[in-house]
Amino acid sequence: MDSFIGTSGKVFSAEMLSRQVEIWRAQGLRLVVTNGCFDLLHAGHITSLEAARSCGNVLIVGVNSDASVRSLKGPERPLNNQDDRARVIAALACVSAVTIFDEITAENLLDLVRPHAYVKGGDYNPETLPEYPAIVRNNIEMVFFPLVDGHSTTNLIDACRK
Fold this sequence. Notes:
CATH superfamily: HUPs
Low-confidence stretches: 1-6
Distance between the termini: 34 Å
Shape: globular
Number of strands: 5
Helix content: 25-40%
C-alpha cells in the first residue's frame, strides 16, 4: 500500500502525504480533510466531495482500507479493493490528494494532516463523530453537509442483489 501511486500522482502513502502537506502549508493553502469507504461511487459522494472542496484550497480524502471497510460494513464488503477505490477518488477534479488508512476512524489521519477543516455528512454531529478527540486536539473546524437523499452505497448494493 505505501508504494502505490495512483491517478496523476494524487494517491499518497502517509509518509508522502506528510511531506506534501508541509509544502501546501508553506504555500498558505487551506487544507480540508474528509474520508469514507467510497465502495461504489455515486452522485451523493460527488456532491459531498465537491462541497468539501469548497471549504478550502486542498481536499485530502482518506479512503478506508479493505480491512477497515470489512470491520465497518461486514465480510461482504468492500466490493472494490482499496487501490481501485483510491484511484477512482483521485480521478475527481475536486480532489487534491488521496490516502488509504487502516484504522476504523480517521483520527490518525487528522493528527497527521492537522487540516483547517474536517468535513462529514449530515448523518454525523459532534457527539457521534468518532474523530472528535482529534478535532479538539488539533483545533480543527468541523463542517457538516446534508446527505443527498436517495443516494447510498448500501441501497445500491441491495438493489443490485435483488
